């Protein structure tokens, strides 16, 4: 038993927490995504572009050289191991670096190179010889601001005189000292405080304004209004850029209010599909019974790595203990862990240190562990009304059609839950076959 991967199993937590269904918090799942990101996310779609002036020529670049960047910036990009612009960067970078500067709203899923793109724009517009804030980037949380700051530091490694300041709570600065750093990254509340109350930043001198993670931002109470108040204090010459991983109507509306005369770039997300997944269900009487079925599956087929989803923390813990007692190498990922702890558990799993990852809904989305061959729904995803959560089912089991390998999925079902499974089957119009767990030969 490795303590690092099984937190607090002995802690007696109160029951309400134990029964808690882990909800996905946007900011922490975005942070987790960044922490575990290893490379660019590919997309088979074309980038859609909507120019504010449709008659102006549309440039795209295939190399970073074409952008005529400062030597030290180009060096920084290559030192990060980037060889060529990502799909979204091909279109976004020429717009962002154009003269005169153009405003941009860009949407593409996380991992497609948005952060690298706006960091590049900020670094290329900064005048290192001038000691005052020139670029302002708003982020939804302290941790996300720090992540962006790290990218600035990496990419700006050879831009020796450029400095970053974090406008985040708990980062006090003496009243009398001027801010000499050229790039400010912070949360809306603190930036507003530094500007209005403490007069530390002159927003009229900002040349590049970035609003990152707009979808997460608007989900946080007060941040939309604060961001708009900040934007109103910028000069009309300031370049304004907004990024989002998703684009519901609410994000569009906000983007439209905060970014004047924008170009718009969109890259559609790779759709998840159940087409290349063989799905099975096993009828069970009880939790113990489900566990037995799971063991039979384990005994019956060769399994690389598996992810097992439970609906509550309590079930997840129980299953973890059972499997460990039977000698399996298991790790448990659930909502009471910090994002850093989650990231390290996922990393260990990716490195093959454990073969089974047991988790609640915290892990349902966005985690892409390529070597996973089977996914088990120890409990079906249901909402409080006991209706199936179709999206969650798809996110747990589905793979992208183009990049995904074939996969196997097992649903452990109490008899009374069978109608829910049938609804899921109908919803996706894909077949889920019954399996007799004593007879694994049925799995072709
Ligand atoms: P997003 O902001 O859309 O989530 P990032 O800018 O963080 O995406 O990029 C995702 C990952 O891809 C990061 O690890 C980043 O270092 C890397 N990356 C970004 N642009 C490129 C590129 N042009 N070539 C190679 N890797 C890149």
TrEMBL record:
PROSITE patterns cross-referenced by the UniProt entry: HELICASE_ATP_BIND_1, HELICASE_CTER, Q_MOTIF
Motif Q motif mapped to chain: 62-90
Catalyses which reaction(s): ATP + H2O = ADP + phosphate + H(+)
Residues covered by the DEAD-box RNA helicase Q domain: 62-90
Keywords carried by this UniProt record: ATP-binding, Cytoplasm, Helicase, Hydrolase, Nucleotide-binding, Nucleus, RNA-binding
GO CC terms: cytoplasm; nucleus
Enzyme class: hydrolase
Principal place of residence: cytoplasm
Family annotation (CDD domains): SF2_C_DEAD
Official protein name in the record: RNA helicase
């Amino acid at each position: 038993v490795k303590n690092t991967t099984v937190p607090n199993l002995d802690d007696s937590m109160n029951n309400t927490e134990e029964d808690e269904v882990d909800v996905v918090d946007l900011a922490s799942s975005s942070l987790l995504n960044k922490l575990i990101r290893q490379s660019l996310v590919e997309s088979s779609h074309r980038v859609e572009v909507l120019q504010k002036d449709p008659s102006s020529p549309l440039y795209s670049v295939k190399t970073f050289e074409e952008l005529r960047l400062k030597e030290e910036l180009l060096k920084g990009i290559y030192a990060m191991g980037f060889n060529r612009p990502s799909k979204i960067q091909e279109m976004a970078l020429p717009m962002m670096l154009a003269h005169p500067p153009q405003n941009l709203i860009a949407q593409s899923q996380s991992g497609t190179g948005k952060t690298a793109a706006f960091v590049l724009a900020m670094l290329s517009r900064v005048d290192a010889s001038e000691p005052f804030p020139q670029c302002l980037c708003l982020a939804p949380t302290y941790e996300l601001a720090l992540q962006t700051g790290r990218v600035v530091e990496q990419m700006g490694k050879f831009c020796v005189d450029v400095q970053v300041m974090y406008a985040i709570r708990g980062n006090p600065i003496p009243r009398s000292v001027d801010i000499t750093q050229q790039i400010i990254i912070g949360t809306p509340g603190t930036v507003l405080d530094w500007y209005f109350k403490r007069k530390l930043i002159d927003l009229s001198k900002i040349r590049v304004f970035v609003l990152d993670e707009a979808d997460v931002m608007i989900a946080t109470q007060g941040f939309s209004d604060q961001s708009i108040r900040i934007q109103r204090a910028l000069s009309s010459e300031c370049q304004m850029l907004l990024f989002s991983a998703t684009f519901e109507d609410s994000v569009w509306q906000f983007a439209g209010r905060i970014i004047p005369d924008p170009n718009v770039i969109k890259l559609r997300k790779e759709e998840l599909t159940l087409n290349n997944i063989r799905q099975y269900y096993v009828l069970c009487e009880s939790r113990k019974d489900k566990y037995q079925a799971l063991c039979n599956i384990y005994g019956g087929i060769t399994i690389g790595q598996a992810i097992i989803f439970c609906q509550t923390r309590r079930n997840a813990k129980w299953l973890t203990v059972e499997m460990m007692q039977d000698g399996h190498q298991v790790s448990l990922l659930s909502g009471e862990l910090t994002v850093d702890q989650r990231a390290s558990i996922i990393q260990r799993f990716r490195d093959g240190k454990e073969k089974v990852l047991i988790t609640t809904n915290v892990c349902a989305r966005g985690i892409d562990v390529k070597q996973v061959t089977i996914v088990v729904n120890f409990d079906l995803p249901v909402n409080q009304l006991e209706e199936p959560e179709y999206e969650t089912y798809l996110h747990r089991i589905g793979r992208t059609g183009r990049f995904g390998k074939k996969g196997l999925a097992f649903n452990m079902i109490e008899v009374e839950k069978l109608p829910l499974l049938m609804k899921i089957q109908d919803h996706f119009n894909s077949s889920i076959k019954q399996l007799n767990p004593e007879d694994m030969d049925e799995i072709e």
